[in-house]
Every structure is written in structure tokens, then in C-alpha cells.
Amino acid sequence: MQTSIFSSKRELGQAAAACGAGYIRAAISARGSANIIVATAASQFELQDALIQEKDLDWSKVRIFHLDEYICLPADHPASFRKNLRERFIDRLPCPPAQFFPVDGNSDDLQAVISALGQELAKYPTDVAFIGIGENGHIAFNDPPADFETEAPFLIIELDEVCRRQQLGEGWFPTLEDVPKLALSMSVKQIMKSKAIINTVPDLRKAKAVKGALQGEVTNLCPASILQTHPNCHTFLDNPSASLLD
């Protein structure tokens, strides 16, 4: 794992975007298209802003997959990840992407959603995944103890209280009771199939999780620690999130 530390979120976002954009351009150059995964969280805002500004990047040749979504949350809810991903990223791109595959957590048939997304992921292997780490060490919504073994592309996850309190603390919901208890999440193994991973993790509240993920043992009790085993993972931190590292 390659780790870089920056003095501001803006610098962090620009560096992460430049690194990820390089992989996108390389895929387009080699194959004529690129397939990416994009997370939706406050930690990704600076990265997404910078990625939109990357020059000479033909988004019409890029397929975009979505990491996770709450279950039974309407698509127009302010906290809906697919709503935020469209408004903060997809709709702001210089041109529409080749395809966008949102996660419909409000579907009446979640297994059909999982099956359909799995088929698309199999057709379009991921060139680069843009992800982050949660306060409880999760990647996507794979809360501890995470399933490191399943081959399923997406899982129905029961969110733990630390995860739900993070969503509350970030201002997405008025009370803890309003935070959904279930989510549809890309699995750990599916994320790890990505050829490259851009892991962007700012803020002091993530420092303990960053310590466990980068310098702790590889364990499903800190799901992000699995990133230590990925051959091409780039982690971008700011000084607060890196403050507990040796």
C-alpha cells in the first residue's frame, strides 16, 4: 500500500484525483474504455471536485459503478447515496458517462438488483475504485466483522451503531432513529478485484480506523485492513487522519 499525507483536504483531493485519473486514461488508451467504482461520502467531496476538473479525460468512455446504498430509503431522500452521487458528481461531469449503474436499495427485489449488478461487474472489470474508510474501519458498508470470503458482488448489511452514528454526525439525518439499519453494499472481495484502489481518508475522526487499517493486523474486525493485501492500493490522508500513525 502506498500512503501519502497532505496538509489540507484540497491538496489530498487533488492528489487522489490525479492518481485515479491516470489509471482511467491508461485504461481508455489500452482498451478504449474504463470502468470505475465511486463512493458517496463526505470524505470524497474534495476528490470528486478535483476529478471533475481533470483535463483530457473522456468521460463518455467511462462506466461508473456505485458502491452502496441504504435499503428502503427513497431515491429523492437528501441522504440517498445515488441522489448525492448524481448531483455532486455525475451531473457535473463535462459530458455524460458511458453508463452509470446506481444501487437501487429501494427495490422490491433486492436479490434481482444484486444479480443484475453482478452481471455488469463481470462484464466490465473494475480499473480503479475510489473508496474511503469509515470510523469503524468499514469499506463500503462492510461493517465489522466483515465477510472477507463471500464471492457475492453485493450484500445486504445490518449496519452497526458506530456506522449509523457516523451518518448522523455528518448531518445526513436528524436523529439516530432516522438512520436506516440496513444497506446494500458491494462486498469486500468485489472491491478487492479492482486493478487499482484510490483510498481517500481525511479527518481526525478517522485516525483510529486509519491506524488499524494501515498498521494493524489484517482482520475483519477492521475491514479496511484487507487493503494491505491489495497489490495496487494508494491511500491519501491529511495530517489529522494520519495523526496516530507511527
Describe the fold and architecture:
The strands form two sheets. Strands 1-10-9-6-2-3-5 form a seven-stranded parallel sheet, sandwiched between helices. The chain has a three-stranded antiparallel sheet with strand order 4-8-7. Helix 1 packs across helix 2. It is globular. It has 246 residues and is of the alpha/beta class. It starts with a strand and ends in an 8-residue tail after the last strand. It has a single domain, classed as Rossmann fold, CATH 3.40.50. The longest helix is centred in the first third of the chain and has 23 residues, at 9-31. The protein is built from seven helices and ten strands. 46% of the residues are buried.
Can you give me a brief rundown of this structure?
It is built from seven helices and ten strands. It is α/β, with parallel strands linked by helices and 246 residues long. It has a single domain (2-238), classed as Rossmann fold, CATH 3.40.50.1360.
